[in-house]
């Protein structure tokens, strides 16, 4: 999740936070059955 939080910072600095949120939502949808992955996204407070 460290990499995703760093990528979020890059998106925010570029002014395209909405695109990052959409990317995370697509990750959540693609991996919705992986409970530990979703829990890690939640713990990192990633949008979606």
How would you describe what is shown here?
With 48 residues, this protein is mainly α. The protein has one domain. The chain is 75% helix and 0% strand. The protein has 3 helices and no strands.
User: How many β-strand runs?
Assistant: 0
The total of helices stands at: 3
| Alpha carbon gyration radius | 10 Å
The computed structural class is: mainly alpha
Strand content: under 5%
Secondary structure elements and their pairing?
Elements: H1 2-14, H2 17-30, H3 35-43
From the structure above, extract its key features:
single chain; 3 helices; mainly alpha; 75% helix; 48 residues
Short description:
The protein has helices spanning 2-14, 17-30, 35-43. The protein has 48 residues and is mostly helical. The protein has one domain.
